[in-house]
Amino acid sequence: MTSKENVLVLEKEAVKIELDLSENDKGVMSDFQKDLILEELNELPPLEDGQVCINGIYTFDMGDKIEVSVYIRNGSSKQINFHKVPLLIVNKNGDILASQTMDMKDFGILPPFRARPYKVYFDKINLSVNLIPNDDWEIQFEKSVSTVNTVKCEFEGFPGDDHHELEGTFTKFLNKLPLIKAEDVNIEVFKTLRCFDDSISIVFMIRNGCDTIVKLETLPIVIKDEDGEVVASGVFDVENVNVNPHKAKIYDFTITEDYIINKDADINNCKVYFRM
């Protein structure tokens, strides 16, 4: 078997790579299929310490798109995950046969020194040739891929007794967010509402990618409309805002009328920024 590969070298030392299946594959894949995958992995070129590698195994013409079966191998000591990934298919001369940015959030986390089978789909409109030749192609990352420590935060809950009936909704919202970088703190808006007294209520999620508890005492907030005009802004004192390591928590905050510049703005079309 000939594999089509693209490798990023960070350090040089041979490493042993073990199979890591997605949760879905674990539930549906037979032992026979797993044995075949292990055979394919063993036939791939050795992976050096620090390499992140994508190996193409086969392509399949689906009519309006090309299916490409690949293995992604992580030879680094850090777990990896992907979001928007530009991929190329090239021939041995380096000519680009296909180019497309893939949404690979569903790939999940690949632990250190693990490999996982995956499939990507190139739309025919993104091919520069009529046919991908079976014996002259390889798939590669368009840009350099670097390993970044990421954290999958677990939903911690709510301050006080608020919103418990919506825990499933908030958990689903959390699971759709891209993973957070280790040591980062991230705030995502869940919903903004205009209240009867013209105040603005913001329900937001704080994710803590740090190894220590995060406590906030002030929170800068700017709300802008579709044209980029400021609707409301201020630096607000907050109490009891603390999130445990690698956890996510929901909070709500109300901006009173005093801080609102444009009371007629359609809040549903506005964006919230947690900075000044």
UniProtKB/TrEMBL annotation:
It comes from Clostridium estertheticum. This is SLAP domain-containing protein.
